Amino acid sequence: MRPILMKGHERPLTFLRYNKDGDLLFSCAKDHTPTLWFADNGERLGTYRGHNGAVWCCDVSRDSSRLITGSADQTAKLWDVKSGKELFTFKFGSPTRSVDFALGDHLAVITTDHFVDRMAAIHVKRIAEDPEDQVSDSVLVLQCPDGKKRINRAVWGPLNQTIVSAGEDTVIRIWDTETGKLLNETNEEVGHKKAITSLCKAADDSHFLTGSHDKTAKLWDMRTLTLIKTYTTGVPVNAVAMSPLLNHVVLGGGQDASAVTTTDHRAGKFEAKFYDKILQEEIGGVKGHFGPINALAFNPDGKSFSSGGEDGYVRLHHFDSDYFNIKI
Amino acid sequence: MAAVVDIDALSAQLGVNWSEVNLDSIQLPPGNNFGIESDDEAVYHDDQSEFDTGFGNIIVVDHLPVVPKEKFEKLEGVLKKIYNQLGVIKENGLWMPVDPDTKMTLGYCFIEFNTPQETELDCLTMVVYILRVCFNVWGSLQEAQNAKEKSHGYKLDKTHIFAVNMFDDFDRLMNVREEWEPPQARPYVPGENLQKWLTDEKARDQLVIRSGPDTEVYWNDARQKKPEPVHKRPYWTESYVQWSPLGTYLVTLHKQGAAVWGGADTFTRLMRYQHSMVKLVDFSPGERYLVTYHSQEPSNPRDASKVEIKVFDVRTGRMMRDFKGSADEFSIGGPGGVAGASWPVFRWAGGKDDKYFAKLSKNTISVYETETFSLIDKKSMKVDNVVDICWSPTDSILSLFVPEQGGGNQPAKVALVQIPSKVELRQKNLFSVSDCKMYWQSSGEYLAVKVDRYTKTKKSTYSGFELFRIKERDIPIEVLELDNKNDKIIAFAWEPKGHRFAVIHGDQPRPDVSFYSMKTAQNTGRVSKLATLKAKQANALFWSPTGKYIILAGLKGFNGQLEFFNVDELETMATAEHFMATDIEWDPTGRYVATAVTSVHEMENGFTIWSFNGNLVYRILKDHFFQLAWRPRPPSFLTAEKEEEIAKNLKKYSKKYEAEDQDVSLLLSEQDREKRRALKEEWEKWVMQWKSLHEEEKLERQDLRDGEVSDVEEDEYEAKEVEFEDLIDVTEEIVQESM
């Protein structure tokens, strides 16, 4: 498996997203320009210029026409995927951490950080069919008990009836999107022990995977918030992904950038580690980054995946045929 | 009970500042727990009756000189001087009776130590009263006891050796009945079986690990490929734990002192040794004595730190001797100022008898014997400038090293001294020496001295060995130099119980490893080289405790490279890596070896167990991993011949164990399959549930998507396998048939 190295960002990667057809790959980084790549050969298609801060997250609509990005410049922006034109800007008084389109692409959930006297919050925005009609009002605003703790990710549950959020306070919460009520949350016993850094959900919204600094990733039922699996690894987890094709999960991470030793690249364990989703056993690892892995994404066809690192590279891996015959 | 406000008011009135009261230092008086249940109750139980008469703070000192009236005051002064060091004598508390006729003293006196003054307790505040009583009563009783113990046997001069008794004891002894009553035979209560772990049916070994707040003891169950928990306790120790040399006890360190644990089924506390703020402990090799160490940093950084060392009898818990002084008295002192004492301060002579222990201080070697806990011949050995001593592991022979003096006029010296006779068995003078290191072979047969010498220019050094054959007549010495004299010696290790040793020498990062033997079949009286392995990534040597196998390890800079080497066959059995490994320890039987990454690194903390030949058995990850220690085993009772016999007929004996191994591995794979099947089934259940829910919600999803039908998961694309064959070109080549 020879990876394709995609060098386009000047700063550490933060997020990767494939479109539904799996032919396009969007990447976000701490430089200010989200970038679009061909998911097959890694060719750069273009960039989305307009943000004035690190871009933390993005999402693309089902028909691959709209892109939404969240940035540390305290805005979330809507883009026309094809032309790269900026369509609308949502302004918040604090950095935007995560964005996610709802089923049907008429709603988006956006999380914002704690900033000065603004508490971290989850905002739900209506996305208009025609950008001309777009308004910036929130349909719903949710707040966690400790408003100073960052909410690292919020995604839509099945049928847009719920929102699942997770962040620095280690608790995963499920909210009712109708009433804004908290429906369910993880307790200390089964929940993560340290900040949750990443969350990725299955294609059918039935379950999701969370990665945490407590060196584990956990798999949950999205409706009942039942803990199904725990994957233990030796390093803090920054990014998680699930194969849509096989029962595999991928965990990426490594030592904090500030604590990385300078002696040996292996010391940081900057590996994307593959686990058997059911048996929770490690299958193998993909090395290559020389900094922690911050972002992981599977192509919807399950035949390739990409990883983005603190080192500023996106590595695109097409699996060898051996991969599909792994037996453990 | 008085309200808190009252207590505060009263304490202010009495000038007690609560913030300055150290609650840990308060000890309740014996026999009164003020209704607070304590798990230490048993400890106080025995003492209780002794103090009931209220004369517990009075001692009687006998065998004083009988003096006339003129000398009375002088003697009184001497006594006061002696006893004021041991406690506070009550005002007019010293009473020396005088014969009314002769005006001579009677040769004894009474000394009363300070008791609580009956203060005006007009208000009913228990709290303050309790505090006073605690400090004073307990203190004075302690003082009296202490004074009795310390001064009993004190030699005022040759004829007057103090006999000190508690006043209360007189009453007791006077009341002894005239007729002898046979003591009641107490029923035999078997003590705790401290050797139980050795009788494990699967002949496994135990190991203790510390990670985070927890200290855990495990069986190393290599067959099951996992450790089996024995005992786990959070906050078991306040700094570290240590096994006794024969594995009987596990010692833990606490603020109040050290404690030893052991026993048949689980770890129970067997004994405690009071030594406040103990920092280090050390056992005698036969584990009869425990040495504890405490040092206090001086307030003035230029002063030496204060050191207190106590020697306890492990089984009875009695303190045998304590040593106090500044750190200088317990070390040779570094060249540039005060060096701290290097542990262990007291080095025990080899053998199970625990007979002698030695201390090295400036120009002096003090050897004590454990019968009386005093210096042999009542004096230390004066050896000018001695810098290092080393006991033979089996005999009471001490090797010592004295460096060069007078700028080379007086050569350096390595000597062997027999204890207790202090006879010098052998000595060797060495010239232009910069440093020496002494290595005893584990059965005391050989002593290797690594000598670093200056080259002629004095700019650099080179190394060689002086090899002493202790067990041979006149102790012959042989000089060994490496093939390349200029090689630096990185590590040296004797084969346990064997005649071979290994040396890592040469330049980093790829030094060579050489093996030598003190006797080979051809050459019994001379050392000979067996082999040199070139360019190894190693900086440490770990022999198996049974010899024959060695691990050449590259720790630290080499990232944990391991090479498992068979010295008999001179072949590498396996190479492996435990990334960033910091520690390596063989189990006491030499069957398994543990490598660990301790918390000096942040990542990948934990340990790995390997078989002796380098197969990975299992790995355990633990955050904040501090320590791993195998439980030692006492030496085998089998004779060397018997051991050889077993080794010869190993096939016969091993059959049984091989069968057992196979059973276990079958069982394991069966269990494993079962577990996997269960996991898969459980997962299938989830998937089924999700699928049906997904199906149910299909229409709603369509609605949300404005009527768009397709779901991703409903195969939009049908995968078809198409075989396509294309004939590009056909050429015919005639290959000449070879004959």
UniProtKB/TrEMBL annotation, chain A:
<comment type="similarity">
    <text>Belongs to the WD repeat STRAP family.</text>
</comment>
<protein>
    <recommendedName>
        <fullName>Eukaryotic translation initiation factor 3 subunit I</fullName>
    </recommendedName>
</protein>
<feature type="repeat" description="WD">
    <location>
        <begin position="286"/>
        <end position="316"/>
    </location>
</feature>
<keyword id="KW-0963">Cytoplasm</keyword>
<dbReference type="GO" id="GO:0033290">
    <property type="term" value="C:eukaryotic 48S preinitiation complex"/>
</dbReference>
<dbReference type="Pfam" id="PF24805">
    <property type="entry name" value="EIF3I"/>
</dbReference>
<comment type="similarity">
    <text>Belongs to the eIF-3 subunit I family.</text>
</comment>
<dbReference type="GO" id="GO:0016282">
    <property type="term" value="C:eukaryotic 43S preinitiation complex"/>
</dbReference>
<keyword id="KW-0396">Initiation factor</keyword>
<dbReference type="InterPro" id="IPR015943">
    <property type="entry name" value="WD40/YVTN_repeat-like_dom_sf"/>
</dbReference>
<dbReference type="GO" id="GO:0080008">
    <property type="term" value="C:Cul4-RING E3 ubiquitin ligase complex"/>
</dbReference>
<feature type="repeat" description="WD">
    <location>
        <begin position="151"/>
        <end position="185"/>
    </location>
</feature>
<dbReference type="InterPro" id="IPR036322">
    <property type="entry name" value="WD40_repeat_dom_sf"/>
</dbReference>
<dbReference type="InterPro" id="IPR019775">
    <property type="entry name" value="WD40_repeat_CS"/>
</dbReference>
<dbReference type="GO" id="GO:0001732">
    <property type="term" value="P:formation of cytoplasmic translation initiation complex"/>
</dbReference>
<dbReference type="InterPro" id="IPR001680">
    <property type="entry name" value="WD40_rpt"/>
</dbReference>
<feature type="repeat" description="WD">
    <location>
        <begin position="48"/>
        <end position="89"/>
    </location>
</feature>
<keyword id="KW-0853">WD repeat</keyword>
<comment type="function">
    <text>Component of the eukaryotic translation initiation factor 3 (eIF-3) complex, which is involved in protein synthesis of a specialized repertoire of mRNAs and, together with other initiation factors, stimulates binding of mRNA and methionyl-tRNAi to the 40S ribosome. The eIF-3 complex specifically targets and initiates translation of a subset of mRNAs involved in cell proliferation.</text>
</comment>
<keyword id="KW-0677">Repeat</keyword>
<dbReference type="GO" id="GO:0003723">
    <property type="term" value="F:RNA binding"/>
</dbReference>
<dbReference type="GO" id="GO:0071541">
    <property type="term" value="C:eukaryotic translation initiation factor 3 complex, eIF3m"/>
</dbReference>
Automatic annotation (TrEMBL), chain B:
<dbReference type="GO" id="GO:0016282">
    <property type="term" value="C:eukaryotic 43S preinitiation complex"/>
</dbReference>
<dbReference type="GO" id="GO:0001732">
    <property type="term" value="P:formation of cytoplasmic translation initiation complex"/>
</dbReference>
<dbReference type="GO" id="GO:0003723">
    <property type="term" value="F:RNA binding"/>
</dbReference>
<keyword id="KW-0396">Initiation factor</keyword>
<dbReference type="InterPro" id="IPR034363">
    <property type="entry name" value="eIF3B_RRM"/>
</dbReference>
<dbReference type="GO" id="GO:0003743">
    <property type="term" value="F:translation initiation factor activity"/>
</dbReference>
<dbReference type="Pfam" id="PF08662">
    <property type="entry name" value="eIF2A"/>
</dbReference>
<dbReference type="GO" id="GO:0031369">
    <property type="term" value="F:translation initiation factor binding"/>
</dbReference>
<keyword id="KW-0648">Protein biosynthesis</keyword>
<dbReference type="InterPro" id="IPR012677">
    <property type="entry name" value="Nucleotide-bd_a/b_plait_sf"/>
</dbReference>
<dbReference type="GO" id="GO:0005852">
    <property type="term" value="C:eukaryotic translation initiation factor 3 complex"/>
</dbReference>
<comment type="subunit">
    <text>Component of the eukaryotic translation initiation factor 3 (eIF-3) complex.</text>
</comment>
<comment type="function">
    <text>Component of the eukaryotic translation initiation factor 3 (eIF-3) complex, which is involved in protein synthesis and, together with other initiation factors, stimulates binding of mRNA and methionyl-tRNAi to the 40S ribosome.</text>
</comment>
<dbReference type="InterPro" id="IPR011400">
    <property type="entry name" value="EIF3B"/>
</dbReference>
<dbReference type="InterPro" id="IPR015943">
    <property type="entry name" value="WD40/YVTN_repeat-like_dom_sf"/>
</dbReference>
<keyword id="KW-0694">RNA-binding</keyword>
<comment type="similarity">
    <text>Belongs to the eIF-3 subunit B family.</text>
</comment>
<comment type="function">
    <text>RNA-binding component of the eukaryotic translation initiation factor 3 (eIF-3) complex, which is involved in protein synthesis of a specialized repertoire of mRNAs and, together with other initiation factors, stimulates binding of mRNA and methionyl-tRNAi to the 40S ribosome. The eIF-3 complex specifically targets and initiates translation of a subset of mRNAs involved in cell proliferation.</text>
</comment>
<keyword id="KW-0963">Cytoplasm</keyword>
<dbReference type="InterPro" id="IPR013979">
    <property type="entry name" value="TIF_beta_prop-like"/>
</dbReference>
<dbReference type="GO" id="GO:0033290">
    <property type="term" value="C:eukaryotic 48S preinitiation complex"/>
</dbReference>
<protein>
    <recommendedName>
        <fullName>Eukaryotic translation initiation factor 3 subunit B</fullName>
    </recommendedName>
</protein>
